[in-house]
Amino acid sequence: CPGVSAACAFGVPDDTWGEILAVAIVAGPGGPPSDTELGAFVRERLSPHRRPRRVAFVDALATTPAGKLDRAGTRARSSTFLRPL
Description:
4-stranded mixed sheet
């Protein structure tokens, strides 16, 4: 997606479904996409059951000491910033 340099998908608790998909996004050099642009990008490429329901813009994704993506760490960093997508 234009304006996205990196992203990490993870599950978050939900009262209705048990868990829903959320995504943490690191903005690209030109700044983050608008909610409208991001929503349109996701709707064009993903079926409804695969679309994230929450989004958080973060400065960096969490990584393990080995440099691999740490989903649990990213989830913990992002949970206070999550908003509907």
